[in-house]
Each structure stands twice: as C-alpha cells, then as structure tokens.
UniProtKB/TrEMBL annotation:
This is Glucose-6-phosphate 1-dehydrogenase. GO terms for cellular component: cytosol. Catalyzes the oxidation of glucose 6-phosphate to 6-phosphogluconolactone. One of its GO terms (biological process) is pentose-phosphate shunt, oxidative branch. Pathway: Carbohydrate degradation; pentose phosphate pathway; D-ribulose 5-phosphate from D-glucose 6-phosphate (oxidative stage): step 1/3. Residues 14-187 form the Glucose-6-phosphate dehydrogenase NAD-binding domain. It comes from Pseudogemmobacter humi. The gene is zwf. Residues 189-480 form the Glucose-6-phosphate dehydrogenase C-terminal domain. Substrate binds at H178, K182, E216, D235, K331. Belongs to the glucose-6-phosphate dehydrogenase family. Its EC number is 1.1.1.49.
Length: 484
C-alpha cells in the first residue's frame, strides 16, 4: 500500500529563527523530506530570517549541513538536495529593530500562500507580528506559526494571544503542539470515530481508568537553566499530555473540522476538576550512571522544580464521572516510552469456575518508540485440562499492517507544516484552548508553591518516585510497567 502525496499550493514560507536549533533539527529537514516526497512544487520558496549576517549561499550551506546531520542516510539524495537548496534564500533581520524588513517585503510574494514560522523566543512573537503587518508584508490570508511554550501561566498566555490578535485573526494563527502531528495521535480519532466497536464502551460505565505515560531517559542537561523555570507540569502536562487527554475524553465532533474538533477538546479542559494535593506526586532525579542529578543539571542547588510528575484527574461530565485519569511524565526514567492505556472494567459476572487467569481488557495506544495499538483480550488457554483463561494481545502494529506505506509517513513537523500551507487548523491549538489549559494548570502549580512542597528525589533509571506507585496502589490499581 503506497501513501498518496498530493502537492500543496505554491507558498512562501519565512522562518524567523532559521539558524536556531529547532529550524536546523526539525523544520528545514522536514521541508527537505516533503520536497523529496514531491509534496512541494518547484515554485515554492523558503526564506530564512535571523540576525546573523549570512549570504544566500552561506545559509544554503548551513541547511545542507543540517540535512546531512538530521535526515536518515536512506533519505539523503544529492539531486533532491540541490533542488531543495535552490528554493532557499536568506534575509538578515532584527525582530525588534528596523533592519531587514524592507528587504523581506521585497522577496515575499503577495500572490501565493504566505506562511511565517516564528521559531524564536516567545518574547519576540509580538514584535514580529507587528512588523509583518506594519511593513505590509503579510497579506490578509497570511498564516503565522508559533512554537511552544505558549506562555508560562494564564496571564502570560493571554498577553501573547492579545499581542498576536492585534495583527492576525485567530483563523491565521497556528499554535504548534507537535504531539498532535504524530500518526498514532490522529489514529486515535480514527479508531474512536470510524469504528462502532469502541465508542459504546468509551465511558465510565465500562472504562475503569486511563493511564497516560510520557517517559524519557534523557535528563535536562544542556537546557537545565531554561527547564528549571518550567518543570514537567508546564513543559509536558499543560500542553502535550493535555492534548492527548482531550482526544481520549472528548465527545464525537459533528465533523472532522478544525473548530468542531477544538470545541470538543475545549469542553474537556473546562470539565477538569481541580487536582487535590494528595493526587499529585512530584520528583527530581538524583545523580547516577555517571551523570549528575537534576540540581546539578539545573545549576540550582535549591531548585523546587519537578523533573517528574504524576497526577490523578477527574473529568466532571456525564461520560467520565467516576473514571480517574492517571498521568505521569518524567526525565531520566527507565525507558523512552509514550503510551495511553485504557483499562476496561471487569465483566459483571463470571461464568467460569477458574477465574484466576482473568485480566482486564486494555487498549494500549503506543506513541513511541514503535507506534501502534494493542488490545488485550481474554481467550481460553489452548489445550486440554479444562477452561482456563489467558490474556493475549490483539496487535494492531501499523508497521505490519501497512508495510511500506508507513516508511513514507511524515514526522510530526513535516505533517504540521504542510497543514499550515493547506490552511487546516485541526491539529493546532486554538487560543481559548491554551488559555483554558493554563486556567486549570495555574492553581495546581500555585497550590504546591503555596504549600512550599519540595519534589521527592528518585533514582535515575527507575519509574520515578515511590509515592507515585502509592498514588495508584491506594486505589487498588497499578501503573503499567515502563519497559526498558
Ligand atoms: P535557538 O536555537 O536559541 O534559536 C533562536 C533563533 O532566533 C536563532 O536563529 C536566532 O538567530 C534567532 N533570533 C534571536 N533573536 C532574534 C532577533 N531579535 N531577531 C531575529 N532573529 C532572532 O532557539 P530554538 O531552540 O531553535 O527555539 C526556537 C523556538 O522554538 C523557541 O520558542 C523554543 O521554545 C521553541 N521550541 C524549540 C524546541 C527545540 O527542540 N529546540 C522544541 C520546541 C519548541 P540570531 O541570533 O542570528 O538572530
């Protein structure tokens, strides 16, 4: 089964921060791969912009180096690379000054799709948005793409939304959450809303609980000082995990349409109960395995920022009242693993004498490392000797089922940038969604700050602090194992 590639309209994409880490690792290699796949027409242009004084040739050379470093060898193609580099140019610009804007105006075409990617610090968003309109560069249909973090609390998110809204309509603003660009995350919507099988069971009557795990093996080394101002709650839960939670918990939208989907996600966030202090466990990794601990990485001996968090949440609506959602994410854990597990309830009555082998049905949606889904069901243990039950996985590994088609699956950034050009906002966060997520997050963080709580130390290479295990044991439940 080969995947279909439909070229997008001709565009001019300006990348502010084109010499930065994100542009070099994700955006530019992603665009090259879409060019290689034939999704970008030769008339399209990519314009790099940053303060550094670079010629077009120097910028192209730096992009070629980034592609050599970040694109897998099997997708390196000299002819395609030369063609891609021909589409690139560079403008030296200062987001907060006058330099470069007239030059940018001269190169951005008014009669093609215009997209402006703000791959810079959020403090520059307002300045760039203002100059794009003041200099008459962005037309009425232009799109802007903004990166995370979108604020660090409700007040700063509101200020960012207000700064962008002065110059662009909500329909022009694409707030990236790259988790929404992952194949499996979108598949979650297909599985829920294109099958009759799951939806009747998708409520508190049949779902015992939901677990969402985003475990990383890396620490915060290298970006510890930045991370120390955020922590796991701001860095992962408020955005990525919240988005996953919304897709699991939302009602079916009336149509797969940007605002219909985002309206339903917003309702989930608004229905979240405040989190009780006893339902929060925060941790900081210790030194180990030849590496420093969180406090050294953050260069802050007194830091109270969490590198791990586990939470138990309740959603107060008809569908979910009574089904807890357990979320956890952390750094320096046993394995790199992201998954959502939906655990169903026990059948109301067992007709079998030997019930000892019985286990709950679990639908596991794996986001990484190997994307796929797996439904654990009960069957009879094969062979003679009576009726004994055993749990087996019904594996829906996409790699097996879809074969080659999966090789061409674009990564999250590739897909999301193409969605920007297509003008499809379904997989981007709307301003009110982001604000609602902060409105829920702020009191949780404010609560532990007011109580003066310190995160608990945990050993690296484990599944986090002991108390996180207790969070579930207390409810007679267990976390799924983080497998190494
Ligand atoms: P970075 O490596 O520090 O790059 C920043 C870029 O902005 C550079 O190209 C820099 O070039 C440019 N810049 C800085 N000040 C400027 C100004 N006044 N005018 C014009 N350009 C300016 O940052 P990054 O890691 O790429 O991150 C960019 C954004 O993406 C941030 O908002 C970050 O939070 C977000 N993000 C990054 C990652 C990641 O993996 N890196 C992941 C998620 C989100 P000059 O100094 O030459 O101007």
């Amino acid at each position: 089964m080969a995947s279909r590639v439909i070229p997008v309209e001709v565009f001019d994409l300006v990348i502010f921060g084109a010499t930065g880490d994100l542009a070099r690792r994700k955006i530019l290699p992603g665009l090259y791969l879409r060019w290689l796949a034939g999704q970008i027409l030769p008339e399209a242009r990519v314009i790099g912009a940053a303060r550094a004084e670079l010629s077009d040739a120097e910028f192209r050379a730096s992009v070629a180096a980034a592609i050599a470093e970040y694109v897998p060898p099997a997708r390196q193609d000299a002819a395609a690379l030369a063609g891609f580099l021909d589409r690139l140019s560079y403008v030296a610009i200062d987001a907060t000054g006058d330099k470069g804007w007239a030059q940018l105006r001269a190169v951005v075409r008014p009669d093609v799709v215009q997209a402006f990617y703000f791959s810079v610090a959020p403090t520059l968003f307002g300045a760039i948005a203002g100059r794009l309109t003041a200099h008459g560069i962005a037309g009425p249909e232009a799109r802007i793409v903004v990166e995370k973090p979108f604020g660090r609390d409700l007040a700063s998110a509101r200020a960012l939304n207000a700064a962008l809204a002065q110059h662009f309509a909500e329909s022009q603003i694409y707030r990236i959450d790259h988790y929404l660009g992952k194949e499996t995350v979108q598949n979650l919507m297909a599985v829920r809303f294109a099958n009759i099988l799951f939806e009747p069971l998708w409520n508190s009557q049949y779902v015992d609980h939901v677990q969402i795990t985003v475990a990383e093996t890396v620490g915060v080394e290298g970006r510890g000082v930045y991370y120390d101002k955020a922590g796991a709650m701001r860095d992962m839960v408020q955005n990525h995990i919240m988005q996953l939670l919304c897709l699991i918990a939302m009602e079916p939208p009336y149509h797969f349409d940007p605002d219909a989907v985002r309206d339903e996600k917003l309702k989930v966030i608004r229905a979240l109960d405040p989190v009780r202090p006893e339902d929060i466990v925060r941790g900081q990794y210790l030194a180990g395995g030849g590496k420093g601990g969180y406090l050294e990485d953050a260069d802050n001996r007194n830091s109270r920022t969490e590198s791990y968090i586990a939470l138990k949440l309740h959603i107060s609506n008809w569908r979910w009242k009574g089904t807890p959602f357990y979320l956890r994410t952390g750094k320096r854990l046993r394995a790199r693993e992201s998954e959502i597990a939906i655990t169903f309830r026990e059948p109301p009555h067992s007709i079998f004498d030997d019930h000892s082998g019985w286990r709950e049905n679990v639908l596991v949606i794996r986001l990484q490392p190997d994307e796929g889904m797996n439904l654990k069901v009960m069957i009879k243990e094969p062979g003679p000797g009576g009726m004994r039950l055993v749990q087996v996985p019904l594996d829906m590994s996409f790699a097996e089922a879809l074969g080659e088609a999966l090789d061409d699956v674009p990564d999250a950034y590739e897909r999301l940038i193409m969605d920007v050009i297509r003008g499809n906002q379904t997989l981007f966060m709307r301003g009110d969604e982001v604000e609602a997520a902060w409105a829920w997050t702020d009191p949780v963080i404010g609560g532990w700050e007011a109580r003066g709580e310190k995160p608990q130390p945990y050993e690296p290479g484990t599944s986090g602090p002991e108390d996180a295990l207790m969070l579930m044991h207390r409810d007679n439940r267990r976390w799924r194992e983080i497998r190494s």
